[in-house]
């Protein structure tokens, strides 16, 4: 059986190599006959599938690079390591969701929804804060925030309407959507719902759950109180392995859509 520390060092080294390969590949142009080249015909490079896929995967690579540096130096932190792993998983699953459809129109629609998501949430949040307390001192700033977000959303809608005609009514991107797409990918051969449970456990820890993730992943009962600051390296290695599967699938889909052959 592979020692957990050795496994984490191996994953760290693999992520560092992947970072370098991806960095070299992304500096090249997508192949002319690639799927992404077809997406360019619908909406420009700066807004469409390619730009957003690059940003998502670069963020996943950045989180993986941070963990690679820590684990190469045998530095382990809980819950900080799990928070970085959650970042890898989130960015990778969103990239999978964006790139998964074979239909360029559907990929472009998802790109539009992703771009709208953050300003839409900011607008909704500002308006909700104003409604909750109309006399709050920050009301002028909140009004400006909502207006700015609304103007940006309108610009996006105009740009994508030209590409998609009259797109369907936009809705916020919910985690259940990209988790469902990830569940259908060939990167794992576990039980149905494994990705959903895995993502949920990471989410609980990131959002401050007091029950340590290692106890849940081992399927054992709680005996006393575990300290999150004492990392279980076996559990950490298992979680990192699962995250690597999601990460690899995002990269595979990206290289496939841009028409690159990467060893």
SSE layout and pairing:
Layout lengths: L3 H23 L8 H6 L8 H24 L7 H20 L4 H29 L6 H26 L10 H9 L10 H13 L6 H5 L15 H26 L5
Helix pairs in contact: 1-3, 1-10, 3-4, 3-10, 4-7, 4-8, 4-10, 5-6, 7-8
Question: Explain this structure to me?
Answer:
By secondary structure, the chain is mainly α. It has a domain at 4-102 and 174-258. The chain is 69% helix and 0% strand. The protein is built from ten helices and no strands. The chain has helices at 4-26, 35-40, 49-72, 80-99, 104-132, 139-164, 175-183, 194-206, 213-217, 233-258. Helix 3 packs antiparallel against helix 4, helix 4 (80-99) packs across helix 7 and helix 7 (175-183) runs antiparallel to helix 8.
Give me a quick take on this structure.
By secondary structure, this protein is mainly α.
Question: Which key terms come to mind for this protein?
Answer:
263 residues; 10 helices; mainly alpha
Stretches where pLDDT is under 50 for at least 5 consecutive residues are: 217-227
The end-to-end span amounts to: 28 Å
Number of H- or I-type helical stretches: 10
Please provide the ordered H/E string of secondary-structure elements.
HHHHHHHHHH
Strand content bin: under 5%
How many strand segments? 0
Report Rg: 21 Å
C-alpha geometry: globular
Structural class: mainly alpha
Overall pLDDT confidence: 85
């Amino acid at each position: 059986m592979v020692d957990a520390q050795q496994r984490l060092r191996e994953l760290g080294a693999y992520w560092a190599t992947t970072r370098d390969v991806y960095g070299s590949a992304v500096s090249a142009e997508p192949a002319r006959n690639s799927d992404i080249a077809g997406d360019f015909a619908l909406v420009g490079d700066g807004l469409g599938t390619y730009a957003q896929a690059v940003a998502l995967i670069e963020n996943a690579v950045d989180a993986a690079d941070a963990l690679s540096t820590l684990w190469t130096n045998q530095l382990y932190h809980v819950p900080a390591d799990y928070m970085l792993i959650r970042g890898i998983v989130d960015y990778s699953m969103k990239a999978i969701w964006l790139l998964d459809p074979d239909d360029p129109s559907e990929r472009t629609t998802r790109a539009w929804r992703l771009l709208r998501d953050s300003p839409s949430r900011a607008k909704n949040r500002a308006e909700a804060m104003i409604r909750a307390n109309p006399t709050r001192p920050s009301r002028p700033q909140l009004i400006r925030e909502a207006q700015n977000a609304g103007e940006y959303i309108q610009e996006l809608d105009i740009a994508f309407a030209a590409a998609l005609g009259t797109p369907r009514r936009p809705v916020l991107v919910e985690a259940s959507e990209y988790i469902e797409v990830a569940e259908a990918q060939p990167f794992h051969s576990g039980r149905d719902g494994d990705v959903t449970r895995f993502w949920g456990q990471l989410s609980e820890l990131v959002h401050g759950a007091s029950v340590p993730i290692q106890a849940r992943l081992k399927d054992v009962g709680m005996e006393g109180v575990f300290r999150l600051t004492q990392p279980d390296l076996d559990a950490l290695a298992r979680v990192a392995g699962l995250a690597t599967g999601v990460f690899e699938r995002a990269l595979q889909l990206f290289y496939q859509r841009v028409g690159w052959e990467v060893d």
